[in-house]
Amino acid sequence: MKYFDSETITKIRQGYYTAVYFNRTKEILLKVNNLKRVTMQIFQKKKGSILSGVEEVRELMESATGFFKGSSWIDKSPELKVSTLNDGDDISAWETVMHLMGPYVYFAHLESIYLGILARRTLVATNTRRAVEAAGGKPVIFFADRFDHFLNQEGDGAAAKIGGASAICTDAMTKWAGGEPAGTIPHALIAVLGGSTVKSAELFNKYYPGEKLIALVDFNNDCVTDSLAVSGRLGDKLWAVRLDTPADIADKSLEQKKDNFGVNPSLVRAVREALDKAGFAKVKIIVSGGFYPEKIAKFTAEKVPVDGYGVGSALIHGENDFTADIVEVEGQKKAKIGREYKDIRKIFR
């Protein structure tokens, strides 16, 4: 299995992660031997979402459809048919994204799980796609590791790549997505080296010579001076500088007014101009800290000379809920008021 280990699947089969009313429903249907076949229809209500989590749900259904007879698990996955759109598909509000067809009793305990998977993965993929589109072709690096529980990283990394992220930042994020994690230099390394941006870059290059060297230059709140210093010392070994100025202060190179707080167009232009004048036109500029699609779009519209964006919490916050409804029972239309059977516009399988 790619997405689940055996211990997790055992817990899922036992209903450990399932809302109790689904577990009780399953038990009732088993006791009365109700094996009626249904069509469960799944959709969400947001316009322009990017579907993600489909392959994970497919593996879930293949691994956890069935029931316990005593202590033995009876696999009933061959009796379940899954028709679905693809990971990465653009989906509309209220559009049917998946049909689950088979005896309801065999998969009643999985509703909490598959809806949660689709909700989380689609949220991250959609947020990432919006940032990528706003960036106008500039790379977006998924820096969301610190903004949520660490066990979300494997799925979040895969969803971010589906959404178009150019890179992700932890080994866990690459487990499902593949590739290698990407990163720069943290403020902590500069701090324990006495506040020396140059020293941190030199050591990074010494011990990770095969990695692109991206020097963090805002530690001393003097991005222009430190960008020039590290460029002068590292020369062609330096690939880029990263600006990460806090949102409540202005860099020393700028007038101390609110419009100049954080990473802003004036700061990026000041660094770019200084680097170019000093002969370091090849050094790229990466920005991070407080970026979200609207701010990225503003930078793009103003043609701010940015070469890439590191984006964190904006890519995992929000909601993209999914809903599941039975719309057919034994081949006959049967749904609660306000719901009806809708075809899937294209079939994955």
Automatic annotation (TrEMBL):
GO terms for molecular function: nicotinate phosphoribosyltransferase activity; pentosyltransferase activity. Signal peptide: none annotated. Pfam families: QRPTase_N. Keywords: Glycosyltransferase, Ligase, Phosphoprotein, Pyridine nucleotide biosynthesis, Transferase. The keyword Metal-binding does not apply. InterPro entries: Aldolase_TIM (IPR013785), NAPRTase-like (IPR053190), Nic_PRibTrfase-Fam (IPR007229), Nicotinate_pribotase-like_C (IPR036068), Quinolinate_PRibosylTase_N_sf (IPR037128), Quinolinate_PRibosylTrfase_N (IPR022412). GO terms for biological process: NAD+ biosynthetic process. Its EC number is 6.3.4.21. Transmembrane segments: none annotated. Residues 20-120 form the Quinolinate phosphoribosyl transferase N-terminal domain. It catalyses: 5-phospho-alpha-D-ribose 1-diphosphate + nicotinate + ATP + H2O = nicotinate beta-D-ribonucleotide + ADP + phosphate + diphosphate. Gene3D superfamilies: Aldolase class I, Quinolinate phosphoribosyl transferase, N-terminal domain. Pathway: Cofactor biosynthesis; NAD(+) biosynthesis; nicotinate D-ribonucleotide from nicotinate: step 1/1. This is nicotinate phosphoribosyltransferase. It comes from Candidatus Gottesmanbacteria bacterium GW2011_GWA2_43_14.
